[in-house]
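Anyone up for a design puzzle?
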């Protein structure tokens, strides 16, 4: 009996979803094609019907809109905003936490993949560069929106791979630095003992929150 026309696209999506989960948990280099196919409930032979190699699969994961922040984290951030809590503080507390560093499969893909993709081919590096730029753009937009910067596009969907618009350059600089600090802190924290990890996370979190507080003070002084 022949497969339905939708069979191949659905199988491809199954493989991509399985790969995303494994890449986030174990990194790029440490995941094999056999592991991906087993997680998808498929045999290795079917892999090459959809992808040339593992790098091609990684590019497909990125192009499919690989989620950097999981739905539960986004839900917590929305709840924090609804309660009137500061978004940056809430985000820093969630991202720079022991829960995040001890559960990579539940958290952001950037810390796990950053060191792995650097040793991969050009296609994977190009795709990952796009992920970094998108993450930085989204963060810049969110920071500018939180500061109520005039003219910033209010309609960008944080859950989608959208491009931030009308964001001042200083916010792009701030978001890139903040992203690098947070990702670097998680990478380091996962490589050291618990006490050292707590120190790294605490200091990075405090630096980010204090930096945002100082910006708010400067902005208020300009207004007055």
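Challenge accepted. My sequence:
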């Amino acid at each position: 009996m022949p497969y339905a026309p939708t069979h191949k696209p659905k199988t491809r999506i199954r493989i991509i979803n399985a790969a995303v989960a494994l890449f986030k948990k174990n990194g790029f280099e440490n995941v094999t094609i056999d592991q991906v196919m087993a997680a998808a409930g498929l045999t290795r032979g079917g892999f090459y019907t959809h992808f040339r190699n593992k790098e091609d699969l990684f590019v497909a994961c990125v192009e499919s809109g690989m989620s950097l922040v999981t739905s539960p984290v986004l839900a917590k951030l929305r709840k924090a905003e609804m309660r009137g809590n500061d978004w940056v503080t809430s985000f820093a507390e969630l991202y720079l936490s022991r829960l995040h560093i001890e559960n990579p499969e539940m958290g952001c893909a950037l810390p796990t993949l950053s060191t792995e993709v650097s040793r991969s081919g050009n296609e994977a590096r190009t795709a990952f560069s796009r992920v970094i730029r998108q993450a930085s753009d989204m963060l810049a937009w969110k920071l500018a929106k939180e500061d109520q910067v005039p003219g910033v596009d209010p309609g960008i969907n944080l859950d989608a791979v959208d491009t931030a618009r009308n964001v001042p350059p200083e916010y792009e600089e701030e978001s890139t630095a903040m992203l690098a600090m947070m990702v670097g802190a998680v990478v380091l924290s996962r490589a050291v003992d618990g006490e050292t990890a707590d120190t790294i996370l605490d200091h990075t979190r405090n630096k980010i929150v204090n930096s945002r507080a100082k910006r708010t003070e400067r902005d208020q002084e300009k207004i007055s």
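A detail worth pointing out: The chain has two domains: 7-54, 71-223.
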